[in-house]
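Researcher: We plan to redesign the surface later, but first we want a full-length starting point. Tokens attached.
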């Protein structure tokens, strides 16, 4: 029986090699309303297609502003960008880059709208962050187009963004509202062709983590599961092929780009489990890239969960049933072989140990005591979580 589920509106999506060229037509309706604000990484800002588009807009006397984003979004970085463009009549925000750029663009689209509404240049994004803010996230934002250039967070499909404040008393929290799904998402896999192995691995494993955590989560949604499972199969096989030395294979790049988009759809509807429950707080303690934190946790967390269910002889547990379904799509026999497949992908990436990001045993002890379960169908003990973290040190 198909149980009750709800579906968040998915706005306009253009997917496929060469789809970036459609951006100009989407921008057309905003050019006469005000200025355009592009948020990009330095690398993307120098991409030939991006340079050509911006040059053509300026030839039409369109006012174009570019804000460069480096690193994951912080309260300070978001507030700085919004204060910079507070007096600019921005009609459209365009984010082109990895998940950090896309989340930054989301945040800026919200903050510029509400700074103008309340005539408050000092209004901070922290005001709207879950758990640390003082107000609920508002429903309105400026028009927003997002174009991912990595295959990881799926931010182009989600209703939230993540902002951090790193260090003592730090946090990594979301601003969230159904209206934060962008007006348009353009997913052009050709933009991912130049990604190095480590970024390909960390972003791809982040996407697979979101897909798998959502798929096995306790939140039921048959419709989303029907999207997530084939995306897990396709994404896992594609990522393995890329990490085996085929980084320029556009077919695999397209498959993992699709998996990344569906991971965002899955996250928005079904939530996450232990990997993201831990990786977020880890990023608030030390500056570890989010994708790497997820990738390092993905194997041992799933191994612990599978072994827990097998030890308890919960052979028919929903988690094991779904992990077995994942395994079959990867050409594996069972849940344990699926975990081994994940571990092999992580091994190929050869990520640095946690200690090289500054983590200590004391840090990991504190992290293990946090409530990181979220929507996990399996409960892991504090000791198990600590042992996993220590193994990564």
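Model: Full-length starting sequence:
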């Amino acid at each position: 029986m198909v149980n009750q589920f709800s579906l968040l509106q998915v706005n306009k999506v253009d997917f496929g090699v060469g789809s970036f060229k459609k951006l100009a037509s989407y921008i057309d309706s905003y050019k006469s309303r005000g200025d355009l604000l592009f948020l990009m990484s330095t690398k993307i800002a120098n991409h030939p297609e991006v340079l050509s588009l911006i040059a053509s807009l300026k030839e039409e006397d369109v006012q174009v502003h570019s804000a460069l984003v480096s690193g994951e979004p912080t309260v300070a970085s978001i507030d700085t960008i919004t204060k910079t463009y507070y007096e600019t009549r921005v009609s459209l925000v365009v984010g082109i880059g990895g998940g950090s750029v896309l989340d930054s663009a989301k945040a800026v689209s919200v903050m510029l709208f509400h700074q103008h509404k309340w005539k408050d240049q000092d209004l901070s994004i922290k005001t709207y962050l879950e758990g640390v803010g003082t107000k609920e996230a508002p429903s309105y934002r400026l028009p927003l187009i997002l174009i991912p250039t990595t295959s990881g967070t799926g931010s182009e499909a989600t209703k939230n963004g993540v902002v951090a404040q790193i260090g003592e008393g730090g946090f990594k929290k979301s601003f969230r509202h159904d209206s934060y799904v962008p007006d348009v998402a353009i997913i052009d896999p050709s933009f991912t062709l130049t990604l190095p192995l480590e970024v390909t691995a960390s972003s791809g494993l982040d996407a697979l983590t979101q897909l798998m955590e959502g798929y096995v989560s306790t939140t039921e949604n048959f419709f989303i599961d029907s999207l997530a499972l084939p995306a897990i199969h396709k994404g896992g096989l594609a990522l393995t092929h890329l990490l085996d030395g085929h980084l320029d294979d556009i077919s695999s790049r397209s498959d993992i780009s699709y998996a990344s988009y569906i991971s965002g759809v899955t996250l928005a509807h079904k939530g996450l489990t232990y990997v993201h429950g831990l990786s977020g707080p880890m990023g608030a303690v030390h500056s570890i890239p989010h994708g790497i934190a997820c990738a390092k946790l993905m194997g041992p967390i799933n191994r612990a969960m599978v072994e827990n269910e097998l030890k308890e002889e919960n052979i028919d547990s929903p988690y094991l049933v779904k992990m077995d379904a994942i395994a079959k799509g990867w050409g594996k026999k069972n849940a344990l072989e699926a975990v081994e497949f994940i571990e092999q992908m992580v091994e190929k990436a050869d990520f640095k140990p946690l200690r090289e990001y500054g983590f200590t045993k004391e840090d990991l002890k504190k992290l293990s005591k946090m409530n990181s379960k979220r929507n996990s169908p399996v409960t892991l003990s504090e000791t198990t979580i600590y042992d996993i973290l220590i193994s990564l040190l």
